[in-house]
Every structure is written in C-alpha cells, then in structure tokens.
Amino acid sequence: MGKGDIPEKLFESFDESRRSFLRKLILGSAFVLPAITSFSMSGLGVGEASGGVSNQVCGSYVSNQILDCRAPKAKPQNFSNCDFAGADLSNQDFSCLVFDGANFAGADLTNTDLSYAVLTGANLSGAILRNANLTGANLAGANLSGASIKGANFKSANLNGANFLGAILF
Fold it and tell me: DSSP string of the chain?
C-alpha cells in the first residue's frame, strides 16, 4: 500500500504529530488492525473527512482551540489492550489517550507526550521513556520494571501500585 492509496483528507482531521503516527501505522507497520478498529470512523468517507468535536482526539486543534482532555465533552481515543511491544513510538503526541492494559514492553517512547494519558495496568517493562512527558498520567498498577527512565516528567501522575523494580532511573 503506498501513500497515494490513502486520501489525504482522511489525515487532515488530525494534528501533524498524529498524522505522522497514523501514516507509520497504516503504511509500514504490523499495528494496522488495532489502529483502524480503535479510531472512531463514523462520518468519514473516501472523498471527504469530517469530524465534530465529539470524534476529535483530545489535545487536537478544533477551530484553533485546544480541547482540555479533562473536560467532560472531550472523548479520548481508546487503545486499551493494544499491543505496541517493541514499537518505535518516539516523538509522538499521545496526550489524553487511553491505553488501559496496553502492552508497551520494550517500546521506544523517547520524547513522547503521554500527558494525561490513561495507562492503568499498562505493561511498560523494558520501555525507553527518555524525556517522556507523563504529567498527570494515570499509571496506577502499570508495570515499568526494567524501563529506562531518563528525564521523564511524572509531575502530578498517579503512580499508585506502579512497579518500578529494576527500572533504570537517571
């Protein structure tokens, strides 16, 4: 599948960092199925992309305003129980997304924005979290054993029951 096979209008409803991530998933990754089944596709057509505020990923620009992911009207996209093990997810914006029980074992999350993301029970064992932004993230019960955590920001994060056994903290 080449870049020309996917209508560009489909990507225009997402901000640039999410467009880049979606292109990687759709055009060259083994994670196509979780991505396609996880995004709300209602209202999207081949000829034209449309999406109201209710279908937007929180943190996206809508009418030049950033949605507050803590606001009740913002509906975060759900990637619960998805498998991202060993994936290069560096330099991505995953703020406000839901990753309950997702598997990030050995994944590279360098410089990734996971602020206010829900990562309860997620497996981040052996993950690389260098300079990752986890401000306000919910990591309750997450497994970060053996993770490489250098310069990561956990300000206001929920770390109740999180496992950092063997994590490399700098």
Answer: --GGGS-HHHHHTS-HHHHHHHHHHHHH-TTHHHHHHHS--TT--SS-----GGGSPTTSEETTEEPPTTSTT----B-TT-B-TT-B-TT-B-TT-B-TT-B-TT-B-TT-B-TT-B-TT-B-TT-B-TT-B-TT-B-TT-B-TT-EESS-B-TT-B-TT-B-TT-EE-
Sign of the alpha-carbon torsion through 52, 57, 58, 63: negative
d(CA 151, CA 99): 22
Q: What is the pTM of this model?
A: 0.60
pLDDT at 88: 95
